[in-house]
Design brief:
With 75 residues, the chain is mainly α. The chain contains four helices and no strands. The protein has one domain. The longest helix is centred in the middle third of the chain and has 22 residues.
C-alpha cells in the first residue's frame, strides 16, 4: 500500500511540474520533498529536470517553448 501511495505522489509531482501555474503545484512538490525518506530522490529528480530544461534553453536560444521556460521558473 505504501508503494501505491508513493506512486500517486510521484504522479502528482509530475503533473505539477508540467502544470506549474495550477494552484497548489508548489505545495505538491514540496510535500514529498519534506519527507526525509524521499528527499534525496525528489531533490535529484528536480535537479535533473532543471538541468535538462536549461540545456534545452541553451540549445534553442530565443526559441525555447513556453512550457520549458515556465518549468525553469517553477523549479
Amino acid at each position: 500500500m505504501a508503494a501505491m501511495d508513493l506512486g500517486y505522489k510521484v504522479q502528482a509531482i509530475m503533473h505539477a511540474i508540467e502544470n506549474p501555474k495550477e494552484p497548489g503545484a508548489m505545495n505538491t512538490v514540496t510535500s514529498l520533498g519534506h519527507d526525509q525518506r524521499h528527499y534525496v530522490i525528489v531533490r535529484g529528480w528536480l535537479a535533473y529536470q532543471l538541468q535538462g530544461d536549461l540545456s534545452i534553453r541553451a540549445a534553442n536560444k530565443d526559441q525555447t517553448s513556453a512550457p520549458v521556460n515556465t518549468r525553469i521558473e517553477f523549479l
